[in-house]
Amino acid sequence: MRTSMKTWMPWVVVLALGSGCVEQPSQPNRGGASQAELDRIRRQVVSRTAPTPQHALSFNWDNKVELLGYDINVQNNTLRPGQSVTVTWYWKCRAPTGDGWRLFTHLDDANGPRTNQDNVGDTRRAYQPERWRAGEFIRDTQSFELPADWDSPTVRVHLGVWKDGQPRMAVTPADRTDGDRRARVLELNTGVQVQLTETVVPRATGAITADGRLDEPAWANAARTGPLVNPSNGNPPSATEAHATAQMLWDDTNLYVAFRVTDDNLVDPSTERDNHLWEHDAVEVMIDPNGDGNNYYEFQVSPKNQRFDTRYDRARQPQPFGHLDFNPETRSGVAVTGTIGNADDNDTGYDVELVIPWSSINDGLAHTPPQAGDQVRLNLFVMDEPKTGGQRSAAWSAPRGGDFHALARFGRITLSLEAPGAPAAAAIPVPSAAAIPNIPGLVAPLPAVLNNGAVPVRRPAAH
User: What's the rounded Cα separation, in Å, for the pair 371 and 251?
Assistant: First the structure.
């Protein structure tokens, strides 16, 4: 495998890893290079002869800049943590971009953006697109070492063109971008094996009513998660972090998920379906049935029993919130112990039952209806707005980053006909406050104040 074009002399630049994936600011005087240095670099990296990259690509930025392909010096498309790689990108200038336009390179792990190399290499330092001339072919060589602590099975490389204070330059074809004007140009394997959170989910032994009470006998044999963990590091939650547990069951028709949330400050200003529930208090189920990263689903329920649901074609696509016209016939119920929206008291929390029909997530299921032994990839979350402000969260399978859409980190459930081997704990007791069931056709009345605990309850319209 050749690592550079025969017509151009190979060269390597050592990378200083960036700390994020916001484009790095322009360097004064193009990196401090003299005019003589700029001219020397231009002579080295520019040609009027079309290159023949090892790997051909065809990306176009506003009919001004084209990416023709790349050379790379890895074997078997694998770059392991701690190893170095040299990539040479081959660009063509179709028309001048104007002042200020520069290149960026982002490295993403399976969780999302991890680091960048915007200013790495002589081309980036001294001959950015703002200086390119129509008809030029530009060689852009970058070398970097994958961080030794890289804990994702893949490293994804995105390229683009940007300018301070402006949107990134539009790139086509759109179906090969991430929806944020970043071209998806390269994906390498790292050999990292992700340790998945797993559990066996037994078949429900009787009917379940989605009222938030969890008092059906079937819940006694449900799979239990234990306390949800810190999303960033997978550690058990501290006293100041979000606290919740979850349970799961299934049958031929539905997946049943229950949450018990401990929360001393219930916050839920939602008024209708698909409000931004995640900004305050809510529980969430995300399902990528076969774990392929395509056609996955998101379901949220708030303390007022409002629901948010959407479907994505791939990670966070389409932007900003997927297909919001996805409104499956899910059912949910919430039982609240406390006062929603009153920061002056100390609440206890809320319990949720969510019923997700298999028919609404059948794209990617091994069988429809599912069978014992089938596996499903999913994750469970709780979002909480504490009295101190901000937001905190917890997860079943820690995404180990700030983005819950870390599909490679979703846990795995195996459907079973048997109850879990360990003795089942008793069903969750009924909260002292009234439940908030999802009752089809019910019109939402004005909030009522109950005498037993002064808990305002809003019964939502049918979802």
Answer: 9
